[in-house]
Structures are given as C-alpha cells and as structure tokens.
Design a protein that fits this description.
By secondary structure, the protein is mainly β. It has one domain: YVTN repeat-like/Quinoprotein amine dehydrogenase (Methylamine Dehydrogenase, Chain H, 7 Propeller), CATH 2.130.10. Strands 14-15-16-17-21 form a five-stranded mixed β-sheet, with no helix packed on it. The chain has a four-stranded antiparallel β-sheet with strand order 1-33-32-31. A four-stranded antiparallel β-sheet has the order 2-3-4-5, with no helix packed on it. A hairpin with a 5-residue loop joins strand 24 and strand 25. The chain starts with a helix and ends with a helix.
C-alpha cells in the first residue's frame, strides 16, 4: 500500500510537471502584441489564420464581447494569454464625443468631473476580467479635444511589467498580477493647439519599453522633452529637452547593426536619439504644423508620414545619420533620405509596410500604396469604394490588411499591388482605437466594448 501511494505520488508529480511545462510552452509560443501597433509599431504578426469575415452585430465569429467602462482611445496589448487595456471613467454616463471629418478645435467640458484612470487585465481567450486597478483618481488636470479622451495612450509590456501613461495623471508601472511597482508625476502635460493654449486637446503618445528603459515622448506647450525611466524602479535615467510644439505620435526604436536609435515625429523636426543616453543623433525638418503618426521601420528604412497644412509629407529615411539631414529646396532625396513626397501622407493613421509595399491611409480613406524601397506609386483607391473617416491605424496578418473606420466597419483588403476588397465587417459601434492581433484573434476596441474576433478554429485553440 505504501509503495502504491509512493508510486502514485511520483506519477502525480510527473503529470503536474508535464502540465506546467505545457503551460510554459504555450505562454512562450503565444503571439505577443506588447505596445501600440505591436512589435516596433509594425502592425504585423504572421502565423495562425486570422478571420476575413465576421459580424459583431450578429455575433458571427465573435469569441467574446465585454463592456469597458469610460471613454478611451487606447489600444489593447497582449502578452501570453493576458490582455491589458486602459480607460478613463467618470460619473458621466455618456461623455461627450464627436467623431467624423471636421476641423473644430473645441474642448470637452468633462474636465470638471471626477475621473478614475484604470488599467484592466483580461484573459484573452475568454474576456474574463482578471483584475483592474485605479492608477489615479481626481479631476483631470487638463482638458481634452471633443474627438479625444483622457486615456489615449496605449500600455506597454515586456512580460514582466505593464506600463501605463495617462499624461498629466502620471506614468505608472505594474507587475502582471496587478501590483503597483512605481508611479511618476511628470507634471502638467498640456498638449493642444499651439496657436491658442486655451484649447487643450490631451496627450496621446504611448510609452515604449526598450531593454530596461521606459521611454516617453512628451511634446507639450512648454518644456517638451523625451525621457527614459528604469523599468524596475521608475528612476529617471535621462531627460532631453525638445524645442517642440505639441505632438501626438509615439517614439519607435530602430535596432541596426551599428547602433540603436529612438525615432520621434514632431512639428519642428523628425529626430533620432541614442536610447541609452538621450543624446540627439540627427534631425530633419520639413513637417507640417500638427503631427500624430508614429514612425515605423522596414527594409532598413525609417518611414514617417504626416498630413496637415501646408504639406502632407512621406519620408523614407536611412538610419545611421548624424546632424541635420533635412532636404534642401526641390530635393526629394539625399544621402540620408532614400525618397520622399510632399503630398500623399496621412494625418492620424500610422502607415503600414507589408511585404514590399507601403500603405498610407489618410483620414478620408483614400488609400495610397507605394513601393517601400523606391517610392514608386503603385495604386490609389477609396477603401470600401466610399472612403469615410479613419483615425485608427491599419494592421495586417497572413496576407490581409485590416482598416478600421470610425463609423464602425473594418474593411479587409488583400495585400498586394492591386486593390482587392475581401470583406466589409460591421462592429456595431464607433471605432477609434487600433486593433491588436494575437494567435489568430483580432482584439477590437469600440467606443463601448472590447471584442475578440476569430474564426471557429482559432477560437477553440
């Protein structure tokens, strides 16, 4: 009897060890989407098939759907089987928000109401909320644009830490179980219309994690800076002042053979910094007055696009430069700029390089496609045949590109040199946030709900 118990105990331990190893393996193999637009803001993951057709209004290919309180445009991020998302929750049942193509500079009135800035952790397979934390509570320290929110910045995670940035309401770091590790008050970060500071629009740049650094780009009305903080302790490691107007894009790290660079997009200049010291490496002028897109990396080039008065530039920049690499009058390229256009860029959606093609989606949905290496124009087409209003950025997987429109539809376009619309999928609510993709599932934040979209095969994995 003793021998049987002993043998059974050994067997149980073995089974437990096998289950533990399988759990670790499944977590390690899971596709991570660690920050805004995924790895290096590329917007791309490959592997398990992603859906082409669904209908959220009819729950077709909807794995789960849950309400997320408050108003926020931040995107979901994923690590292993955990999904993280933020929100700003006030006592107002339906905070005022207005979408669409318009140029009003107005600010919302909910800055008078008490808010909770929250971080949620969900099981990505089921949508179950595992935990939620209040990072800050109080009346907003600045106003927001009527098309913006008090929680625009997407979280970032490296699998050990989750970092959330709420602008004037601070930078906060948690472990994956929801324990607050540190918080930093970065002061009043007033990002708005620089012609009239009375119009406050709110911050939107998302943090990124590089090695042991949390990097934030804070371009505001006064005392703009880019800074790095130790991810374990929150200690400020460096801060570099920036002579900049308010901007809303996120920084991106390029890792080349010779060095790494932080690339930032802003009004006065596109700039590169040493991520370990904050030293400026190069700069390039030529941007319009307002910038909101994030730089991306592909084919050993840095792509930056913008779209605002007086120009709408597209730049393909070679890394590794030093000093001022600005184009001279009538130049379209130089030793550091592979190619460029002064028209054709995008205002809100960050571009996408998929394969050899650069996809640029302006706010009106007039998709423009270029050869990413040469700048050759490939085609231009209205998404869905009608265009519309676009703020979220496109994402891609398995030969398909997903374009979320503000009006609540996600258009699926086949990647390639010819425009081919594969599907028009209804979500049933406004879409302002960029989706995330992991393990064949597309996570879509609507104005009221968070959705997990997948075909029936992916849903059972």
């Amino acid at each position: 009897m003793t021998a049987l118990v002993s043998s059974g105990g050994i067997m149980i331990k073995r089974i437990a060890m096998i289950c533990f190893c399988l759990f670790i393996a499944s977590t390690a193999d899971a596709q991570n989407w660690p920050s805004f637009r995924g790895p290096q803001a590329s917007g791309i993951v490959e592997g398990q098939p992603t859906p082409t057709n669904w209908d959220a209004e009819k729950s077709t290919n909807v794995v789960w759907k849950i309400p997320i309180p408050g108003l926020a445009h931040s995107s979901p991020v994923v690590w292993g089987n955990k999904l993280f998302i933020t929100s700003a929750v006030s006592s107002e049942a339906k905070p005022y928000f207005r979408h669409g193509l318009y140029g009003d500079v107005d600010t919302a009135e909910d800055y008078k109401l008490k808010h909770q800035w929250k971080l949620y952790c969900l099981d990505k397979r089921t949508g179950k909320i595992l935990w939620e934390k209040v990072a800050h509570e109080g009346v907003p320290k600045t106003k927001r644009h009527i098309k913006s929110t008090h929680a625009n910045s997407t979280p970032a995670t490296d699998g050990k830490y989750v970092v959330v940035f709420f602008g004037s309401e601070g930078l906060h770091c948690y472990d994956l179980n929801g324990k607050l590790l540190w918080s930093k008050d970065l002061g009043i970060l007033d990002a708005g219309w620089f012609y009239d500071p009375e119009y406050q629009w709110g911050t939107a740049s998302s943090p990124i994690i590089y090695k042991n650094l949390v990097i934030v780009q804070c371009d505001v009305q006064k005392d703009s800076f880019i800074g790095a903080f130790d991810i374990k302790t929150g200690k400020e490691l460096w801060r570099t002042k920036r002579d900049e107007h308010p901007s809303w894009g996120s920084p991106t790290v390029y890792e080349g053979k010779g060095r790494a660079e932080i690339i930032t997009n802003a009004t006065r200049a596109i700039r590169s910094y040493d991520p370990m010291t904050g030293k400026e490496l190069w700069s390039m002028t030529g941007n319009p007055e307002v910038t909101a897109t994030t730089p991306i990396i592909a084919h050993d080039l840095i792509f930056v696009v913008n779209h605002y008065r007086p120009n709408q530039p597209i730049y393909a920049i070679r890394p590794g430069a030093t000093g001022d690499i600005s184009l001279k009058k009538n130049e379209t390229s130089n030793a550091s700029v592979a190619w460029s256009y002064q028209q054709g860029g995008a205002y809100m959606p960050t571009p996408l390089v998929y394969g050899d093609l650069l996809y640029v989606c302006p706010n009106n949905g007039a998709l423009r496609v270029f050869n990413a290496r040469t700048g050759e124009r490939v085609y231009q087409e209205r998404i869905g045949g009608t265009g519309g209003s676009y703020s979220a950025s496109p994402v891609a997987s398995n030969g398909k590109i997903y374009f979320p429109s503000e009006d609540g539809e996600i258009f699926v376009v086949r990647a390639g040199p010819k425009y081919e619309l594969l599907a028009t999928n209804k979500m049933g609510e406004l879409l302002m946030a960029t989706p995330a993709i992991s393990d064949g599932m597309i996570f879509v934040r609507g104005i009221s709900h968070l959705f997990a979209i997948a075909d029936s095969t992916a849903a059972k994995r």
